[in-house]
Amino acid sequence: MEKLRVVVWNEGRHEKSDALVRDIYPNGIHGTLVEALNRCADIHASSATLDESEHGLPPQRIAETDVLIWWGHQAHDAVSNEVVDRVYQRVLAGMGLIVLHSAHFSKIFKRLMGTSCDLKWRQADDREVLWVTAPGHPIVQGIDDHFILDREEMYGEHFDIPEPDETVLISWFSGGEVFRSGVTYRRGSGRIFYFRPGHETFPTYHHPLVQRIISNAVHWAKPINTAKACYGHRPTPIK
Ligand code: ZN
Fold first, then answer.
1. What is the CATH number of the domain that holds 74?
2. Has residue 232 been placed in a domain?
3. What is the tens place of the pLDDT at every residue in 72-85?
4. Distance from the CA of 199 to the center of ligand 1, in angstroms?
């Protein structure tokens, strides 16, 4: 069986500077997600981080990636435009992209969306209830009509994104706010899923249902084999 080649990209800075984050994610957020995804028989996951050469994403590696997962927070500006261009072109060519939590402000997500991607937030141990709004969607396979994260950072509407192709999950927070927490887009031949939970000081990525949704999203976002899109002057009509 050919496995899906998944790269989990993480900024990886909180794990270096914050003991609390290191306690929750001793191998980094990327390490936790790689381990979870590799429990799927048809996935081969590996990680890449900001401080590696070319952020761990040289051209050959991007070319050989089926689905890229992206977590960033405090160092979006440290990501080189060259690498962002590379990821952008590869998404248009069919690579899947899963954008997590504070990566709503990453260069790559903002470029693909074309909006500010701004939102409201509060770090106060809110309770988050995630409601499934697209039952039957592959990304929520195995998820009941809702699930609960006891403590999370709040993200609230308005979330300045283009109208999603599909809204798969909506969150309610104990402060009363709501948020579109699972949304899908297509850009070129590529599929994009934004998934909200995952503040670094909470153990969210250890939660089995959060892991399940990310693994479902990897399968949903994998490249679909079609002819390469062809543009420009077409001299010969179909006979
Ligand atoms: Zn956060």
1. 3.40.50.880
2. no
3. 999 999 999 999 99
4. 4
